[in-house]
Write a structure and sequence with these properties.
The structure is a homodimer of 841-residue chains.
Chain A: E1 22-25, H1 33-39, E2 42-43, E3 47-49, E4 64-66, E5 70-74, E6 87-91, E7 100-104, E8 107-108, E9 115-124, E10 129-137, E11 143-152, E12 159-168, E13 173-182, E14 218-225, E15 229-236, E16 242-253, E17 256-263, E18 267-276, E19 282-293, H2 298-315, H3 317-335, E20 338-339, H4 343-360, H5 385-397, H6 399-411, H7 413-422, H8 452-468, H9 471-492, E21 494-496, E22 502-504, H10 522-545, H11 547-556, H12 563-572, E23 595-596, H13 615-619, E24 621-622, H14 629-635, H15 642-652, H16 663-674, H17 677-688, H18 705-719, E25 722-723, E26 729-731, E27 741-748, E28 751-758, E29 761-768, E30 772-776, E31 779-783, E32 789-792
Parallel strand pairs in A: 23-24, 26-30
Antiparallel strand pairs in A: 1-9, 2-3, 3-4, 5-6, 7-8, 7-13, 9-10, 10-11, 11-12, 12-19, 13-18, 14-15, 15-16, 16-19, 17-18, 20-27, 21-22, 25-26, 27-28, 28-29, 29-32, 30-31
Helix pairs in contact in A: 4-18, 5-6, 5-8, 5-18, 6-8, 6-9, 8-9, 8-10, 9-10, 10-11, 10-12, 10-14, 14-16, 15-16, 16-17, 16-18, 17-18
Chain lengths: 841, 841
């Protein structure tokens, strides 16, 4: 897999052939195990198994993740200050059930050295199953066929199912199959190829990676193994969270065999010793159940595992495969996006959508982590990624999942209130990154200072309610989020006197982390204004139409007279920075006073900037990690004129590095809207292949969930031109020049609509539910069931040509540990010359 | 000791009687051991022994410090980023030689429970010796007189001398005296009363305290004990620094006695068992030598200890006492400041000056730490405190010591060049806090971002050269500092285009740590301008008058043509923020846009602010930890008009909390200059009693060296009205209303002058050396030896009355561990009300 600058197909097609419904690998390689383990991971939002090979060895890092199952640790700040985050939270690499080792003639199958006549690994998007099929020629020349399957169930979120079939193709042989349930103590065992230190005195670091828990995390609680079943349980040492894992094994074969069972604290295994005869398959079926809890005794979790396993035993494993196919079919029915005429792009699009399914569908009582359940990157934390990048997709395709994610935020309110108090603010302040609800960001300048998380959550909530009509949820729970976040904003900002007093918000960090702790960040102010407006509007609405519930709200939240009006007043008075000279919106009040970083003069090896420059250096310049004003142009698009959007986009795009994977998809949307259509496609590809082509060099830590959601947004909002301002669906499409058509699904107020965009027309078909009203380029249309509406299009919006877009498709094909490369290379160096683009000479 | 708001004498005089030449304690108390251990510490700049009692127990924290002897550790940032400080440096609590235990009738003397008939402890400023005398009535009713002395030698910097004399006053008794050389492993032993954790689940923290090294620091290298001598040696585990400690014991008595000697890795002791007869004294003399090194083998250090001890053995201990008195006499001859008519104030003044002597006189190859050698606060680090607060005193009283401190900075240049490179800057960037020369500040916003350290060092260098005429030092070494710091400024700043292009410096933190990472901090810009100007002026001067040396400089520093002119251009173009509306200089470009913190509404228990509010909250407001613009008004006083000084002072004084001990003395100087003379005296007292009255609640961590230096500055610059702008000495005095007179010494270009300020006149007398030219209120006078000049004064400057100065004498008399007091008090709290002074309602 190589990253070609801007090329639409950066995958090595001799190894990963194009398949619109699957990610296929036809040749084994040990070169990029970390990446392929991420790409071939299976998950359901609750349970995730990385794409490690069954044989255990030959791995970058084993990974099994249970959403929200984390360990805590005391953050030790090198210099402490009041209010700094205190409790570190790290997702636990859970005990592994993937490992099934194979021995033929006592010789182990090791993919890295095996003579493979055939190898095929396929992650099928239609049924959600990972299949591998290979023919192994052993050292003694015997050919062995191995076929395996693996998935995590969408029907039963606690369940993983595996099958492992071995057939001697020529000749007989003793075959041993050793299937394990193994607690590796957080991924560190003799099998790992992951280096734990550069070993050359340098300290490797990448702030985007998880910190390592240094002490034993999982304390064994019980272990048991019977004839067909084994169950082990643990408790996390500090967080006291509990976990039980149960595994059922069955074997089906005409060969003679014997069985050995073993169980101890961190390991249970089932070994089948088979006298395998040519042509007589050996089929081992392995069914695993994971149950976790914040505090329920493991005894109880062990029982839950038994019940889950019993149900599968009754129904049979093939029923599980069937239900998985049904669930995936339903997912595609409501979520598929089709780019006609570009099968490679279509494959990548579906891979991204499939990741959204894997990361979210059965999350339920937890959040959607930045890596889903596919890796330990960012320590398994939940950020604004879920609200701004994933929830739009869910709201318009699987709204009940969006609702669950929002309810999870609602349950976080008590912790957010405590955090607000600690930060000397009223209302509630959601943590920038967290699992448990406590702030876990140890670097406040790019963490706690991102107060906009409050508005992001409120924003997603309001979009959910306006897209679904689920007013009941807003009245019963959601509005509490609006009230408490609005209170925080009203308290955080202040009125600056003047001819026209304005409401200012100082000392915050916007989405772009290449500036920090600024005054009046445009994104923050606009999102806060929306937050305040929505809180006021919903409170007034509930007071009018749901008087009983409003009375409860007043009592419960101690809502004071005048508070609601005050929010509206703050919103109306919100300061919006604008530079009359340049005719652009400054990213923050003083952004334009900074020097402009000379990206053209910054060598490739100095990127991403965050790994090569001290924050103080980066913060001093006009240079962006990710879209910030441009993100506001999208999310608060109805607040900007067409001209302002273009001016802002043209100003910010050339100084945006895209060092964050959250950037390209937003840039794609706004490039499309203002008319840079080729550039939009380039950015779309930069988002589409973030993981598939490992564009940021860290796909081995897990998928980039925000980017996968952003791919959907870029398709639907960007090219489809959909907007959802003011509770209405509008369309102003931007079909890429060489795309024959684009189709996608949108669920709105319970109805499901298929949108088909072609060069000369856009059509809407109700597939499910009642009529939907849409507006296309200002004209209103009512789409009724059974009566598709076709609307002709004169063009696909303005088309601007220009040499914007300096963001390369960064990263490289090989995984690398990012280490200090600047450091202290030359003690005698006296003069500058390290290309930081300082324009002072 | 109680802190009375503004009261001139906050000491409990029943316990600490007034004595102009000593700090005396006439009653033992275990209530404030941490404070008195600091107040009664002895040191010489190289070696410091805290004022622990000889008996070992009954202590807050044992402390023995060797300047620069430190351990290193890897700083683990909870979130890492490029260029963050990596190597922590912590001064080691060195092995203790103070302990001499006494047993009478096998009963130990324990001060906390002993029946003391008499107790007197005196730190004598004239001879630098700590004496203690007590009469103990044992449980069996016998009266025992114990007299001890202790000092660290100013003649032999490696030497500490102790005597311990026991006399049975009535009756005989078996007496045991156990004298120890003990490595307590960094202060933690069974004797300590210091709590290591609150134990209630809260995490106590005070960012001003040293972090604890968790592993064994000192690795034993050798131990040896002979008849009279014992020598132990260690190596620090990580820093590889080495240390040897040797002790000689002698006993002198007419009683019968036997001797036991014991030595092991971390302990050597000499026990005298004496059949003590009434009235026959037992005198034990203990002489200790400390030798440390960055890497010399301990064998060699052991030899050095032997040589030091041999010399004392030859000369006799009483000669050491005599030399100590001589050295102190010489110190007072050149440094004494006399406030007539106020013996209590005079005592406190001398205590502060004595601390300056103890912290600096024999520093030599090291720096002057924030706590001198009196405690482990701030981990033994060197900050700008030495250059801005201590070097003025040294330059004008002991210039050779100032020279040593500046040479130490010169030796730090290679590390500062590496740091500049790491920070993407040209030239050299001195570390904000360090021992080894590497940046040790783990919180960059109030550390690395204080780029002004570069200018502070250049400033002190230039003042030293202009005050001493030591041009040779400037030409040979000093100018390299000027060149490299000027390069850093030129590279850090940039030209902002406009009608009149200006040189801007963005993203720095000034002295006031209650705002951070701002643009165009006034203090920084003015100090940088001075730095650039001085570098250009000195380079031109050397080029003209020292052509050979200039050629060497050009070659060695790769000085390029035009570079010097460019510095001058940057200096001339330096942006100086000024607000035409308010007629004040903003602390930084956007300071006045912030909300004003309502200090009047901030409850006392919420102070100091840094222990009760998150930095993000504090940074958002106009509120100061310490003087910033006001410090610039003093240091760059010739750059401001009289009106500007008054306007700025009146603006900033009411929003300055004085939460830093560096603030009050500067506020005193400028209050005096602009005319708030009563307020000046209040601030002077706030500085004078920082440690003596434990005004900041942390005197137990060691003395506040900057404040002690600031006391001298407040006397000489503040009340004496001396200024040293443009290489000239000028005077515009401000004698406090109820002070009959003030006299002080000033050494200038080798001559020593006594200045005597009275209400109606100021007089100058040359005590040593040649003539000195001074200007008094604009009129020039030549003071020649043997011809004192008396100049009549009409007044003591303007006198303004006003209710400025909201800074209380904060802190309290009892030591307390500062713990989270806000935290999470009320999970159900929903509305604000924690008095953060948010003025938005």
């Amino acid at each position: 897999m190589h990253a070609h600058g801007g090329s639409p197909d950066p995958l090595d097609r001799t190894r990963f052939p194009v398949d619109e419904w699957a990610l296929r690998e036809t040749r084994y390689s040990a070169e990029d195990l970390g990446v392929t383990e991420t790409l071939f991971a299976v998950g359901n939002g609750y349970l995730g198994l990385r794409g490690n090979c069954e044989e255990g060895r030959d791995t970058h890092a084993h990974g099994t993740f249970v959403n929200g199952f984390h360990e805590t640790w005391q953050i030790r700040h090198a210099e402490e200050a009041f209010g700094f985050a205190r409790t570190g939270q790290t997702i636990v690499n859970a005990p592994d059930v993937k490992t099934i080792k194979l021995y033929v003639d006592d010789e182990p199958l090791l993919l890295s050295v095996a003579d493979l006549e055939h190898y095929d690994r396929t992650l099928d998007f239609r049924d959600g199953v990972l299949r591998r099929s290979l023919i192994w020629r052993t050292a003694s020349g015997k050919r062995v066929q191995v076929v395996s399957r693996r998935f995590t169930s969408l029907e039963h979120r606690h369940l993983a199912v595996m099958t492992f079939e071995v057939t001697m193709l020529d000749g007989d042989a003793p075959v041993a199959i050793s299937s394990q349930l193994l607690n590796r103590q957080d991924g560190l065992d003799e099998y790992t190829t992951e280096s734990l230190g550069a070993g050359d005195g340098t300290v490797g670091f990448d702030p985007r990676k998880a910190s390592t828990l240094s002490e034993r995390v999982l304390v064994p609680q019980s272990h048991w193994a019977g004839d067909r079943r084994m169950v082990l349980s643990w408790r996390a040492a500090n967080s006291r969270m509990t976990l039980a894992v149960g595994v059922d094994h069955t074997i089906s074969t005409d060969n003679e065999y014997e069985t050995l069972t073993h169980a101890e604290e961190d390991l249970a295994k089932k070994v089948y010793r088979v006298r395998a005869q040519q042509g007589r398959p050996i089929l081992v079926t392995k069914v695993a159940a994971y149950h976790s809890s914040r505090g329920v005794p493991t005894r109880e979790l062990v029982d839950r595992c038994r019940r889950t396993l019993d149900r599968v035993r009754e129904d049979g494993v093939e029923q599980c495969f069937a239900s998985q196919r049904r669930e995936m079919h339903a997912f595609w029915e409501r979520s598929d996006v089709v780019v006609a005429g570009h099968p490679a792009v279509e494959q990548a699009v579906r891979w991204n959508l499939f990741q959204l399914a894997q990361s979210s569908l059965r999350v339920e009582t937890a959040g959607i982590a930045a890596k889903g359940v596919s890796g330990s990157g960012y320590e398994g934390h939940y950020f604004w990624d879920s609200e701004i990048y994933v929830l739009p997709f869910l709201t318009y395709t699987s709204p009940w999942v969006a609702r669950g994610a929002l309810r999870f935020r609602h349950q976080m309110l008590p912790a957010a209130r405590r955090r607000a108090y600690e930060m000397s603010q009223a209302g509630a302040l959601f943590p920038w990154r967290t699992i448990s609800g406590e702030e876990a960001s140890a670097y406040y300048a790019a963490g706690t200072a991102q107060y906009h998380i409050n508005a992001d959550i409120a924003f997603a909530l309001c979009k959910y309610v306006s897209g679904t009509g689920d007013e009941d949820f807003m009245v019963r729970e959601g509005v509490e989020i609006l009230v408490e976040t609005a209170r925080m904003w009203e308290d955080l900002g202040f009125w600056l006197a003047g001819k026209e007093p304005r409401f200012h918000i100082h000392g915050v960090t916007g989405p772009d982390e290449y500036t920090a702790v600024v005054n009046n960040n445009l994104f923050t102010n606009l999102m806060a204004r929306d937050n305040l407006r929505q809180a006021a509007a919903w409170c007034r609405h509930i007071a009018e139409f749901w008087p009983e519930q409003y009375a409860r709200l007043v009592k419960q939240l101690e809502l004071e007279p005048g508070e609601v009006d005050e929010w509206a007043r703050c919103a109306d008075g919100m300061y919006v920075p604008y530079d009359e000279g340049l005719k652009v919106h400054p990213q923050d009040q003083h952004f334009l006073e900074r020097e402009v970083w000379d990206l053209a003069a910054t060598p490739e090896e100095k990127r991403p900037l965050l790994l090569h420059y001290h924050p103080l250096v980066i913060y001093r310049f006009q240079v962006l990690k990710q879209a910030d004003v441009v993100a506001a142009l999208f999310l608060q698009g109805d607040e900007f004129s067409r001209e302002a959007k273009r001016a802002d986009f043209e100003y910010y795009d050339p100084i945006t590095t895209g060092d964050s994977s959250l950037s390209a998809v937003v840039q794609a949307i706004m490039a499309a809207e203002v008319g840079y259509q080729d550039l939009a496609l380039r950015y779309f590809h930069a988002g589409l292949y973030v993981d598939l082509a490992n564009l940021h060099g860290n796909a081995s830590d897990g998928i980039h969930v925000a980017s996968t959601g952003g791919v959907w947004s870029a398709l639907v909002y960007g090219f489809g031109g959909m907007r959802d301002h003011n509770d209405a669906l509008t369309f102003d499409p931007r079909l890429p020049r060489d795309w024959p058509s684009l189709s996608f699904k949108v669920r709105f107020h319970g109805a499901r609509m298929r949108v088909l965009l072609k060069r000369e027309q856009i059509s809407f078909t109700i597939e499910e539910g009642a009529a939907v009203s849409v507006s296309v380029r200002g004209e209103q249309h009512l789409i009724t069931p059974g009566a598709p509406v076709v609307i002709p299009l004169e063009d696909q919006g303005p088309v601007l040509e220009g040499a914007l877009g300096t963001m390369p498709l960064i990263g490289s094909s090989t995984e690398h540990n990012m280490v200090y490369t600047a450091g202290v290379p030359d003690p005698d160096r006296r003069k500058k010359g390290n290309g930081n683009g300082n324009g002072s000479r």
